[in-house]
Every structure is written in C-alpha cells, then in structure tokens.
From TrEMBL:
Primary location: membrane
Transmembrane segments: 238-262, 374-394, 428-446, 474-495, 501-520, 532-551, 557-579, 619-638, 644-665, 677-697, 728-747
Regions of compositional bias (Polar residues) in chain numbering: 281-295
Bilayer disposition of the protein: Multi-pass membrane protein
Gene Ontology terms: cellular component: lysosome; plasma membrane
Top-level taxon of the source organism: Eukaryota
Location relative to the cell: Membrane
Compositional bias annotation for Low complexity: 304-314
Annotated source species: Erythrocercus mccallii
Family: Belongs to the SID1 family.
Keywords for the protein's UniProt record, in alphabetical order: Glycoprotein, Membrane, Signal, Transmembrane, Transmembrane helix
Name used for this protein in its record: SIDT1 protein
Length: 762
C-alpha cells in the first residue's frame, strides 16, 4: 500500500506584498508555494486563493526494505514586518490508490488540486480513465503522469508532463501499460482559474477587482472510474470483420457475373441472343422498334424529324470494326471545327424534341479518348493531393504523441482504440470499405469495358446505332474517387480537427460532381464538359471551401460574395443546360452588341414565351434547381454555418439527388423500364443511405466547439466493442456510394436494344 500525505494551509492575510511562503522538504523532492496563491488568467487578470491544499509526492517501500516512517520538513516563512496568522494541517490520505471498475468521488479547486495513483492489474494491458461531473464549469484538466516527483498539479504547469485533456462534464483517456515501465501512473485533476479554454465566458477586460478572493467559488465535484480497455483479440476480430464484410460484395459480384454468363450462354446456344447481350451490348439482329411502344416515345414527332442526325451518323464517321484503339493524332477539334458541322450543331441542338442520335454524332474513338482524360487526371490529382495530406496528418499525430496534448484532435475518446502511433485506429480501419468497394467498382467497369470492346470487334458497324454510347472514362474516375475518399477520410481521422476537415470532404465534392457529369453524359455524350473544365471547377469549389474554413466563421463579406457567386453560377449553368451549350452572348459591335443580345434573349424567352417555354421539361428542372440553390444561398447568408465544408457538400448532394430523381421520372415517363438489377440497386441505395445518415447524425464530437465541449458528446462503442456510430457511418456510406455508382452504371441497360433515334434526350 502506498502512503500519501496531504498538506492544508490557510492564512487570513490578503497582503500580496508579504505572502507566507511554505516549503516542504522530502526524501526525494521539494515542494513550495505561497499564500495567498496567485493564478493568472487572460488579459493578465489575477485570482487569489488563501486556502491551499497539496498532496505530497508519495514514497513507496521497495521490496528490499520494510516500511518505515518518512520524515517531512515543513518550513514557513514571511518577510512581513508584522505577525501573520496561518493554519497548517497534515493528514494521511486513506484512498490514494484507485481501483479498477470502482468509482471514486472527490472535490477539487484551483488551489486544491488532486491526484491519485493507479497500478495496472496483472491481466490488463490497457485501461480507460472515465471522468464525469454534473456541472460543466469550472473548467478542469485531467492529466496522466508517470511516477516522477514533482507532480505537476497546478494550472501553469500541468501541461509540462504526461497526457492531458481539458474537461467540462466528461473526459476519457486511454492508457496502455507499455507506455509506463513501472506499470503505474498518477491521475491528476486540476481546476482552471478561468473557463474560456472550455468554451465558457471570456473576461471582458483587465479591469476589475484583482485582489478578490476565490476560495470557495470554483470547486468542482468529480467522479473517476478506471475500466479495462479491449484486448488484442478484439483488434483481430474487428479487422477480420471489416475485410470479410466487404469481401462479401466481391463474392456477390462474382455470383451475379457467373449467373449472367450462364444465362447468356444458354440464350446464345438457343440462337436467340448473342453472348454479349446484357453487358451493355446490342443484339446481332437489329432491335425491334416495338421495344418502344407506339405513341409512347418522348415527343410525338415523326421519325424523319431526327433523320438528319441519323444520316450524319452514317458509316463515314465510324471506324472499322475492331479499331477501338486511341490515336495519338486524333483530336476532338477534327470534328468540331468544320463550319458546316458547327452550323449543323446550332440547328440540331435547338430542336424542340431531341433524340440521342442528335447528340452522339462524334467519332466514338475521339469521345472515348476525351472521357479517359477524366481517369488519368484524377489519378494525378489524387497523388499530388494525398501526399501532402499524409505528411501533414503524420505531423499532427507526432505532435499529439510528443506533447501529450489531446485537445489537438477531436476523437470520440470513449471509443478511441490506439494501435502503434495512431490514437484512434478504429476510425481509420472503418474506411477500408471505401477502398475495397472502389476497387471492386473498377473491376466491374473493367469487365463491362472488355465485353464492350469484344462486342465491337464482333458486331457489324451498323449496330453502333443502338443503346446508350458506352464511354467508361467517367466510371473509372468515379471508382478512383471512391478509393481516394477512403484514403483521405482515414487521413482526416488520424487527427480530426477544424483545420483538416476539408481532407474528408474534398473527394466527396468530386464524387458528387462526377456523378452529375456522368448522368448528364448518358444522353448528352457530345456536349458534356471536358475533364479540364470539370476539374478546374472542382478546384474552384475546394478553394472556396478553404476560404470558408478561414473566413466563414464571422465575416459577413465572405458570405455575401459566396452567395453572389453561387447564384450567378447557378444561372450560368442553367443557361448552358437549357440551350444545350449553344447559347452565346456576342455581338458585332463590341460590348454594346453583347448586351443587346442579352436583352433580346431575356425579352424573347422570359416575356414573349413565358407561358410556354420551348423546352418545358428542362425548364421545370432548372426552375426547381435554381430555387434549391437560391435557398441554400439565402440560408448561408442568414445563418452563416461554421461547418462550411459540409454546407458545400450539402449543395452538391441536393443537386445530384434532384437531377437523379428528374432523370428517373423522365425515363419512366418516356415508357422506358427499369431492369431488375438497377431496380435492386436503387432500393439498396435508398435503404443503405437512410441507415447511413441515421448514424451520421449521431454526433460524437464536434470541432465547431471547444475540445472540452466536444467530449460531452462522446459515447461508447456500439459494434464489437470496437467501432462507434461514426465507424458504422463509414461502413454504410461506402456501401451506399457503391450501390449509387451501380445505379448509374446499370440504369439504362434496358435501352441496349433500342435505336438511338428512338431514345429521347432530357
């Protein structure tokens, strides 16, 4: 049993010029303080305490010697020219050593800190120190220090040694046996003289009663419980669970591919279908127009109305069968810069009713090459973005480990399981799903791409006029983006805080943007944005996110500028979408002609034809989309949310969901159908997203608040004793994104047997 002694002193004198000095000399150390004891706060404010109580550094008998009496000298002195009364009381602590799984209650104040000893039991390698209090304030600090004298137990020196956290109502520190060679440590509790560090009120100025005594005004009741943490076997179980859960997706994909292969082979042997049917290909016999019911096609116009587009997509623009390779000398401009073709664009794309044949007129090799740039560019972006991020978070983790300051990172400390140098390995492990499912999606896209190439080699050239044009570059980019989201989310959770939250959201912006581009590309393959302009737009968004992190807290000017940019960008994009990229504001006479053209367009389209827009469906989508975006802009301007990165992400996700809903509605309205696989993926996406969002909104920490306030939201693990709610969000969101990608990949498989001049554009 370890003996500990506590010294209590009190002096009635408030004279700061002549304090009473107390010096305690022990066998292995010296402890000294003065009364009144002075603490300094913000703006050089001072707080005086006339009652001081300190625990002396304990001595433990060694195995070689028997317990013996310890001699302690207490020296009291003052330079005052008059007598000063004081009180001195020395007591032996009965409950100095904390026990496992047993709660202990005590009281502390700034001038009366407390610390206790804990020894690891034989079968315990890691423990969690849980500290709770009914009152949020006064602000306190919990520290874990090695068995070394002196013990740093005052506000100005508690951060000098060990690991520490600030605290309001709750704190939790995980301690491992390997970090303490003596297999024991001190748990120190310090009450701070001011509350601003924990989110409390900030002193307004340096004025005030600096000589005021604070003896009984800042006491705090605390309860500490030390419980064993998880064993190593739980780490192994959690890793097996993480990998096996997502390997089931691989198994399911193999089963689906095998069943599909068997069905296709049976149909092929029966002579009804070619082996490639269902993998995004056309039948060898030309499709039956009855697949699009009479009178149900999008826009009741004669087939000859789109014959111009169909004639221009004649064999002269097609490569020979089997020549699907990229040419280093072919450029997109080879097709676009011909004046007659440019003129034809303006005629075709401004028709009231457009069909896919009108917007898939370019050479397939050139368009495929254009979309492959998305894939190669995102790999380059990922490498250059991820490397500095990894280096930065390693630095963050090193700083946390060296300084012991656990206020730097916003973990869920009640479920933060360390491994090696990582403080919260569970938050990193749970991101494995994004990487595994992203790679699986790449394999699925690769399979489709290979089958498509084989079919192109086997089919005659006229079968190119059926189904949605197959360009896989954006799908490859989406797979890489999903994998990188897992990597960067793991990097963010190495040390989650306000400064690096953008790492967790950057590729989410890109995923949402790429999904919208892919959805638009499906029926607008010739006029979709190039990779350079798309990634430049993402760069602008990420730059705005960084500016929002820096200036978005309280600066009204930033929100005004951002809202204006948001609204203007929505209007500009809406104009391009409405006119299929053929809207140009130009004029023969410098700037005057440009403005005249703008006024004429506004007058013609907004006043003369306001009752019936030329493109009604597009107009409805764009009106709803602009209302949603303007609502976001007004919300940001009024409320100025601190989490600017999530605010931008919400804008992207709402626009994506709106466009996807519009696409599916228009697809069904055009008498197209949803095959079983895309229907299953849509249902799975909705269900998994709903479950994922439930766990996402279970807030376990918040860097919008102080570290101490954030810890009030901490909660224990809920899965295998290893993963918390946010980890479950990681698992489910990875699956939800994977199913979302499959929706985009398979949504139009029903059109593989439909002529492109029968497929409407919307």
């Amino acid at each position: 049993q370890v003996d500990a002694v506590r010294v209590y002193v009190n002096s009635s004198s408030e004279n700061l010029q002549y304090p009473v000095l107390f010096v305690v000399r022990q066998q292995k150390g010296v402890l000294s303080w003065q009364v009144p004891l002075i603490f300094r706060g913000l703006y050089q404010r001072t707080y005086n305490y006339q009652e001081v109580s300190r625990t002396l550094c304990p001595t433990e008998p060694t195995p070689e010697t028997r317990p013996s009496d310890q001699i302690i000298f207490v020296d009291v002195a003052s330079m005052a020219p008059f007598n000063i009364a004081y009180e001195l009381l020395v007591t032996r602590l009965e409950n100095f050593q904390l026990e496992t799984n047993k709660a202990f209650n005590f009281t502390a104040s700034p001038s009366q800190p407390q610390y206790f000893l804990y020894k690891f039991p034989q079968d315990v390698d890691s423990v969690i120190i849980n500290v709770v209090s009914d009152a949020a304030y006064p602000c306190s600090v919990v520290s874990v220090q090695d068995i070394v004298c002196p013990v740093y137990d005052l506000d100005h020196n508690v951060e000098f040694n060990g690991v520490y956290q600030s605290m309001t109502k709750q704190a939790a520190i995980t301690v491992q046996r390997k970090d303490f060679p003596g297999e024991q440590f001190f748990v120190v509790f310090v009450i701070k003289p001011e509350d601003y560090a924990c989110g409390g009120s900030v002193p307004s100025s340096i004025h005030g009663n600096v000589n005021r005594t604070w003896n009984l005004q800042r006491t705090k009741n605390l309860q500490v419980t030390i419980v064993p943490s998880i064993k190593k076997s739980v780490y192994i179980q959690a890793m097996f669970f993480s990998f096996l859960s997502f390997l089931l997706f691989y198994l399911g994909s193999v089963v689906v591919a095998f069943v599909h292969y068997i069905r296709v082979q049976r149909k092929a042997s029966a002579g009804r279908l070619s082996p490639e049917h269902g993998s995004g290909m056309m039948t060898s016999s030309h499709p039956i127009s009855a697949s699009t019911p009479e009178g149900s096609s999008y826009g009741a116009i004669d087939e000859s109305s789109s014959s111009g587009g169909h004639q221009l997509s004649s064999p002269e623009r097609r490569p020979p069968a089997g020549s699907d390779t990229d040419s280093s000398v072919e450029e997109e401009s080879d097709f676009d810069t011909m004046p007659e073709i440019e003129s034809d664009k303006n005629i075709i794309r401004t028709k009231v009713f457009l069909y896919l044949s009108d917007l898939s007129r370019k050479d397939r090799r050139i368009v495929s090459k254009k979309y492959k740039i998305y894939f190669w560019n995102i790999i380059t972006i990922a490498v250059f973005y991820a490397l500095p991020v990894i280096q930065l978070v390693i630095t963050y983790q090193t700083v946390v480990n060296v300084t012991g300051n656990q206020d730097i990172c916003y973990y869920n400390f009640l479920c933060a399981h360390p491994l090696g140098v990582l403080s919260a390995f569970n938050n990193i492990l749970s991101n494995v799903g994004h990487m595994m499912l992203g790679f699986l999606f790449l394999l699925i896209v690769l399979r489709r791409d290979i089958l498509h190439r084989r079919a192109m080699e086997m089919k005659d050239i006229y079968t190119l006029d059926y189904g949605i044009p197959k360009h896989f570059g954006l799908f490859y980019a989406m797979g890489i983006a999903l994998m990188m989201e897992g990597v960067l989310s793991a990097c963010y959770h190495v040390c989650p805080n306000y400064s690096n939250f953008q790492f967790d959201t950057s590729f989410m912006y890109m995923i949402a943007g790429l999904c919208m581009l892919k959805l638009y590309q499906t029926r607008h393959p010739d006029i979709n944005a190039s990779a350079y302009s798309a990634y430049a737009s993402f760069a602008v968004v990420i730059s705005l996110a960084v500016l929002g992190v820096v200036f978005g807290k309280n600066d009204m000017w930033f929100w005004v500028i951002f809202s204006m940019i948001h609204v203007l960008a929505s209007l500009a994009l809406s104009t391009q979408i409405y006119y299929m990229g053929r809207f140009k504001i130009d004029g023969p006479d410098s700037d005057v002609g440009m403005f005249r053209r703008a006024v004429m367009v506004l007058y013609t389209d907004c006043i003369q034809q306001c009752s019936r827009p030329m493109y009604m469906d597009r107009m409805v989508l764009l009106i709803v989309g602009n209302l949603v975006n303007w609502s976001f802009a007004i919300f940001g301007l009024v409320y100025r949310p601190r989490d600017f990165a999530s605010y931008i992400l919400g804008i992207f996700i709402c626009n994506l969901l709106l466009y996807l809903a519009f696409y599916i509605i228009m697809k069904l309205r055009s008498s197209e159908k949803l095959l079983p696989i895309p229907m299953f993926c849509i249902v799975a996406t909705a269900v998994v997203w709903a479950a994922a969002l439930y766990f996402f909104f279970q807030t376990l920490s918040s860097w919008e608040e102080t570290p101490a306030e954030s810890r009030e939201k901490n909660r224990p693990c809920i899965l295998l004793g290893f993963f918390d709610d946010h980890d479950v969000w990681h698992f489910l969101s990875a699956a939800a994104l994977f199913f979302s990608f499959l929706v985009l990949l398979t949504l139009d498989d029903d059109l593989d047997t439909v002529r492109r001049d029968k497929i409407p554009v919307f």
